[in-house]
Amino acid sequence: MARIKAYRRRRRHSATRLSAFVGRRVEITTPYGNVVGMLQSVSPGYVTVTNEDGTHFVRVASVCWIRPEETTPLA
Fold it and tell me: Cα torsion at 54, 43, 59, 22 (round to 10°)?
């Protein structure tokens, strides 16, 4: 499972690293809770995630983890 760790004060995510997840369903962990959905776009300041609840803008500085959404294998 690919994970990108956010370093709050030392360095930030680069847009090129986060853009590898565009078009994929991802789970983003922030200090305020998790956001799960399709990663639509990446900009230097925030990422855009769309799910059934609507569109969410997540500040890149508040991202703790971003990873592909875990799915259960078909039996």
Answer: 50
* pTM score, whole prediction: 0.65
The rounded distance, in Å, linking the Cα atoms of 4 and 34 is 15
Spatial CA neighbour of 68 closest among 46, 38, 47, 41: 38
Predicted local distance difference test score (pLDDT) of residue 15:
63
4-68 CATH pick, 3.20.20.80, 3.40.50.720, 3.40.640.10, 2.30.30.100? 2.30.30.100
**Number of C-beta neighbours around residue 38 at 10 A:** 16
Amino acid at 60: V
